[in-house]
Structure formats: structure tokens, C-alpha cells
Amino acid sequence: MHLKGVDIFILMDNEALSEQLQKEDGLSILVRAHYPEGDLDILFDTSITGEKVLSNIKKMNLDLSNTYYIILSHKHWDHTDGLLEILKTKDDWIPVIHGKNFFRPSVAVGQCLSHLSKMPFLKEKIVELKGMLTPVYTPLEFAPGIFVSGRISLVTDFEAPIPPLLRMIPPEMVQDEIEEELALIINLGEELIVVSGCSHRGIVNIVKNAVSVTRVSNVKAIIGGLHLVAVSEERIARTSEELSKSKIKEFYIGHCTGIEALKQFRSVFGDAVHRTKSGMHITF
Fold first, then answer.
1. How far apart, in whole angstroms, are the C-alpha atoms of residue 169 and residue 175?
2. Residue 264 to residue 284: CA distance in whole angstroms
3. Is 157 helix (H, G, I), strand (E, B) or coil?
4. Which residues, including other chains, have CB under 8 Å from residue 149's CB and lie 6 or more apart?
5. What CATH number does the domain containing 27 carry?
6. Does residue 213 surpass a pLDDT of 80?
7. How many domains does one find in the chain?
8. What pLDDT score does 73 carry?
9. Helices and strands, counts by H and E, the chain
10. Range of the domain at 76
11. N or C: which terminus of the chain has fewer CB atoms within 10 Å of its end residue's CB?
12. Coil, helix or strand at residue 168
């Protein structure tokens, strides 16, 4: 099988193309890979509210009948809470791909303590709903031209995952480095498309991982959240500077990217920067 191209549908983001579509502070993306033998759909993240994601799927004239994989970029609630409702729509077993320590509890410690994920408490329920839990720690080509990143190394000196709230792993209460984060890499032959959920491990690190995994240096597009919403102006500038070296042609970014980062990216990359919204359809 040879990958001919892909269609990418933004099922959920915190802005929408029309009032008829749902929006929320989560992310869900459907990737449709085209092969001579037929299409293959991959669901990347499930946002917060499964019913809202399913509503958008219907209004976008899509369905999940041809979805053979679900990938969860990381364990946080805004990317995973819709999973159970989506699994209920599937009649057969479906692989649910996740990273290392995905089911390890994680909490945010600020003025109060709150859990960042229900996943540690829903493991058995996922299996009951025919979710085939599939941990992936190293790069994997699970369909022709379609890769999951495996653990993303922290190569740069400015992208350590330091969120606004202290994120800890009990009971030792050590800093949560979000090791489970996975990105989706699409190899179109001479160019890559990189799909990221939140880029907690750093979008520059994620791009470097994709190039290393595929040995393809040209990146056609980055799609997803960049988690630059609560970082310094210096980090935003360093990020855009490093990405400009990679000569990335298009950016489809939203969710946790942040208004200031979007402004900075537009000042550097101009019309190549597009703000993702529920209902958006991108073709490569």
C-alpha cells in the first residue's frame, strides 16, 4: 500500500467555523489517509465531551465507521474525556494507542489540588467498551506512511514542559514531565505533516523527532496545539526562530497555542499561519 494523500478534519477546537458547530477547550482531529486500496481513518484525541465531538462529526457529514485507530496524544482531560462516548459508537475492538505512564495519576497543584486526567480510573471501562489499549514507547509505523512518534526527547534547551500550574505525579509528588506525549507523523514521501495535541514536550522537539524517525527533512505542515498560551515572550520568539530554520510551509494551529503566539507566528510566517477551528477541513 502506498499513501497517496490525506484529508484532515478538525472535529473540535475552542473556536468554530459556524454557530452550528460545537466548540470547547479541547481538541479532536480526524485524519483520513488515502490508499489505492481504500481510505483509513485515524482519530487523534477525543476532546472533553464525546457527545459534542459526535455532533460535529455528523454535521460535517463524517462518520467513524472507517476509523481503525484512536491515538491519545497525552493523558490530560481536554484530550481524553470524550473517549468513552466515542467507543460506544464502535461495534468492534479498536486499538487505543497511548504513550508511557499514560495511566499514572497526575495532579495540578496550585491554590487547590485537582486531577488532570480520569484515565487512571477508567482503564477497565475502556477495555469493557472494546478499546484495545496499545502502549507505544518507541517510534512505530502502524500504517504505510503513518507513524506515531514514541517518546519525544527533550533536545532543545528551552522547551522543558513547565506549565503555569505545578504538575506532579503522586505519591512521590515529582514534576510531571508528560513523558506519555505522542505526536502523529504523516510521511507523504518527500514531505511530512506533524500532528500534535498540546506540544508539552515542545513543538521544536516534536519536529526534530519526526525528522529523525522518518529521515525526511522537509515539513509541509504542523497541525494542532503548541502550548505557548502561558509562556514567556522569549520562549515564543525562540520557538518561531527555530521553526523558521526548518522551512515549514504551513501552520494550522489553535487550542492551547495562545493569542500572543499566534500573533508572533503571523509576524514571522505571514499567511502560512491558519487558526484551527471546529469544522476545518485541510487537504494534502
1. 6
2. 25
3. coil
4. 139, 182, 183, 184, 185, 206, 209, 210, 213
5. 3.60.15.10
6. yes
7. 1
8. 98
9. 7, 18
10. 5-150+159-283
11. N
12. strand
